[in-house]
Amino acid sequence: MHYAEFPPHPSLAGIVRCIWALHVPAQAKHEDPVENVVPDGCMEWVIHLGDPVRAASTGSAFAMQDSTVVVGQITGPFQLQPTGDLNVIGVRFAPAAFASLFHVPARMLTDQHVSTDGLGSLPTGELMDRISQALDTTQRIGIIQQFLIDRLAGRPSHPPRALSHAVDRIISTQGQLPIDQLARTLRISHRHLERLFHEHVGVTPKMLSRIVRFRSVFDRVSDDPKWSSIALDCGYFDQAHLIRDFNRFAGQSPHAYLRSQSPLDRCVKGMD
User: Domains of the chain by range and CATH?
Assistant: First the structure.
């Protein structure tokens, strides 16, 4: 298995968090090929260059993903099941960036894996041919970044400043800032802040805060985690509160999730 993250071009800073590439040869997969994906607060553009991949939300049947999809904000776990050689490139966007860059209401993509064929602002024909025919990952990333740079230059669009500040504060405080206090700091109403988040982020500010707080747990996990201490450090009321969020976002308890992590789970960190 090879997983790598690449920093974005400077002109894409604040829009793209990273571009990542993953290759897992079919013969290198572990016994259980199903990978559990948990929320990270970001939307992604995912391009499958290898064999098809099936995906399913918890409790639903697996369905084949298209070769290029946009994954909206997810609020619970979903599973990926490679059918053979796994060769993927993904663009991880900042929480509010995708909707503004491609003029797509983020709320319409929440908990969805949408083929880019259905999004007119993300071409799939000639661009996808160029990406798939590129000689290596470096060339593919160059093609993807140039497309995004051209898109940014040709149709400049930025999230509202208040929204950008709100997202930055949620991330910098690891989801521990009360939303009412955040709205007062920005001098906007709680309701207006929620409208901005629904349109540009795809989830409420409270939900993004919960996801960011949930992700912050991973930075504090050791070989012998003390869950009660980790819970308090991450802003949970107690260990039971942390466990409830893990059941919501990972579909299982913290101990069970970390015990069952595959090498792929440990590589893909999401929002850092």
Answer: 2-154 (2.60.120.10), 161-267 (1.10.10.60)
CA–CA gap between residue 44 and residue 22 (Å, rounded): 14
What region, left, alpha or beta, does residue 41 occupy, with left being phi > 0 and alpha being psi -120 to 50 degrees? left
N residues, the chain: 272
Q: 6: number of CA atoms within 13 Å, CB side?
A: 18
Q: What is the 3-state secondary structure (H, E, C) of 61-111?
A: CCEECCCEEEECCCCCCEEEEECCCEEEEEEEECCCHHHHHHCCCHHHCCC
The alpha-carbon radius of gyration of the chain (Å, integer) is 19
Whether the CB-CB separation of 75 and 110 falls below 8 Å is answered with: yes
Q: Which two tokens stand for residue 5?
A: 């993250």
Give the torsion through C-alpha atoms of 49, 60, 105, 200, to 10 deg: -90
Backbone angles phi and psi of 92, in degrees to 5? -95, 115
Predicted confidence (pLDDT) per residue in 66-97, tens digit: 999 999 999 999 888 888 888 999 999 999 99
Which ranges constitute the DSSP H helices of the chain? 97-102, 126-133, 137-154, 161-172, 179-186, 190-200, 205-216, 227-233, 239-249, 254-260, 263-267
Verdict on whether the full-model pTM lies above 0.85: yes
User: What tokens were used for 149?
Assistant: 């740079």
